[in-house]
């Protein structure tokens, strides 16, 4: 995905922000032969590549890429949960929607959807952190740079459930496996 980074850097220097940071940013794609598996639909690993492209596109279209890179911040995905709902088949067009839906003391949370005619085909919840020199940066600092009200994070109810599930997974993985 180094190509996406280079592309984003180039685009951010010539693209005026079209959206606010908290807006949903959408981009259309088409399923090509390099995206499919033997079932003639997008391979599940390729969805992750599309989702990453969507996050880069969001940062360019909102102007946040330029602002955050200027201040030395880096975006790192800390967790992602993907649901595959409907197939996306060879040569089918789809829209990839990306939006930030909130933050807590450490993480930002994003929602990404692959849609066709308004119907969701794949859905991802993403937990991400911004870092500077390898150390996590509190979302309140990022909000300040992006001119966001740091106290205005009203996450949807399903995010609390997802966060609880992530905590349960972390606790489970810390315990020894039973044989």
Describe, in plain words, how this protein is organized in 3D.
The termini are far apart. Helices cover 36% and strands 31% of the residues. The mean pLDDT is 90. The chain has a single domain, classed as Hotdog Thioesterase (Thiol Ester Dehydrase, Chain A). It is an alpha+beta fold and 179 residues long. It has five helices and six strands, in the order αβααβββββαα. Strands 1, 2, 3, 4, 5 and 6 form a six-stranded antiparallel sheet that branches.
Envelope shape: globular
The CATH superfamily bears the name Hotdog Thioesterase
Name of the CATH architecture: Roll
Helix content: 25-40%
State which percent range the strand residues make up.
25-35%
Number of helices: 5
CATH class: Alpha Beta
Largest beta-sheet details:
6 strands, antiparallel
Low-pLDDT residue intervals, each spanning 5 or more residues? none
Reported by name, the CATH topology is Thiol Ester Dehydrase, Chain A
Structural class determined from secondary elements: alpha+beta
Note the run of SSEs as H and E. Answer: HEHHEEEEEHH
- Average pLDDT number: 90
Q: How many domains?
A: 1
Radius of gyration from the alpha-carbon trace, in angstroms? 17 Å
The counted number of beta strands is 6
* Amino- and carboxy-terminal Cα gap: 39 Å
Task: Output the keywords.
6 strands, 5 helices, 179 residues
How is this fold's topology laid out?
Layout: H1 2-14, E1 25-30, H2 44-62, H3 64-70, E2 73-84, E3 93-103, E4 108-116, E5 119-132, E6 135-137, H4 139-145, H5 157-174
Antiparallel strand pairs: 1-3, 2-5, 3-4, 4-5, 5-6
């Amino acid at each position: 995905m180094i190509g996406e980074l280079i592309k984003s850097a180039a685009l951010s220097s010539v693209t005026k922000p079209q959206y606010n940071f908290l807006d949903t940013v959408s981009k259309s794609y088409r399923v090509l032969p390099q995206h499919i598996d033997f079932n003639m639909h997008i391979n599940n690993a390729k969805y992750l590549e599309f989702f990453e492209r969507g996050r880069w596109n969001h940062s360019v279209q909102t102007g946040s890429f330029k602002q955050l890179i200027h201040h030395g911040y880096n975006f790192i995905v800390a967790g992602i949960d993907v649901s595959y709902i409907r197939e996306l088949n060879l040569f089918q067009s789809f829209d990839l929607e990306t939006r930030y839906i909130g933050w807590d003391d450490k993480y930002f949370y994003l929602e990404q959807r692959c849609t066709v005619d308004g119907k969701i085909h794949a859905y991802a919840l993403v937990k991400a952190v911004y870092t500077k020199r390898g150390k996590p940066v509190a979302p309140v600092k990022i909000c300040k740079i992006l001119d966001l009200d740091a106290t205005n994070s009203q996450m949807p109810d399903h995010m609390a459930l997802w966060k609880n599930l992530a905590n349960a997974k972390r606790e489970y993985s810390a315990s020894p496996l039973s044989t």
